[in-house]
Amino acid sequence: MLYLVSFHMGWLIGSVLLGFCMGWISVVQRGNGTSKVTARWLAVLVAGLVAASFAHAVPGRFGYWLDLGLVMFACYLVGCTIGAWLRYWVVSRSQPSAAL
User: Fold this and answer.
1) Which of 23, 46, 68, 85 is deepest in the core (most CB within 10 A)?
2) Residues ≥6 apart with Cβ < 8 Å to 42
């Protein structure tokens, strides 16, 4: 895994930056989001992919791509979280306080 991170450092940084930008933008636009059923199925899918990665169930090049995709997805989610949190912090500081 250390080789994966060191060899693809540029792509991982790009994934974090892309996630940061998307997190920054997502606070501004409020969408409907996904339903609870869809969110559960996506969570099960991601959990299954992580389990397959830890168990080395996918050998060779496809297993390498699976590991790389999961690491990039994790970096993207970290970037989204940081971007959304910073955008919320900046917007909440710039709003005038409510008068009593």
Assistant:
1) 23
2) 34
* 8-24 residue pLDDT tens: 999 999 999 999 999 98
Neighbours of 49 (CB within 10 A): 17
Cα separation of 100 and 84, whole Å?
29
Please state the pTM of the whole predicted model: 0.79
CA–CA separation, 69 vs 75, rounded Å? 10
Quickly list DSSP for 31-80. Answer: -----HHHHHHHHHHHHHHHHHHHTT-S-HHHHHHHHHHHHHHHHHHHHH
Residues sharing a CB contact under 8 Å with residue 81, sequence separation 6 or more, in sequence order: 19, 23
Q: At what angle do helices 36-54 and 60-94 cross, to 10 degrees?
A: 130
